[in-house]
Amino acid sequence: MNKGYIVCVYEQIKDEKKLKDYALKAREAVNIYGGKFLVRGGEKITTEGKSFVRTAVIEFSSYEKAKKFFYSSEYQAAHQILKGIVVRHHQIIEGT
Predict the structure, then answer these.
(1) Tens of pLDDT along 61-87?
(2) Which one, of 5, 64, 71, 1, lies nearest residue 36 by Cα?
């Protein structure tokens, strides 16, 4: 069974406090679904393409588990906090 990943790159963040509120609630959902943060912000160098302000990568035991996490009521409650606050690109990806 292949692992699943949530990859999120932020183009714009309009309210850092709301982002922190989201992060606390999202972390609860990540824990419920057994996810592990691999990347959560940090220093970066853009070597090609557009530079984004923040990147997050979460690993799950399976692609199905990553999908369950994203569509769960626990995560969707967190997701709603950022409506109109950020511009981001969010993907669920099957990996190895």
Answers:
(1) 999 999 999 999 999 999 999 999 999
(2) 5
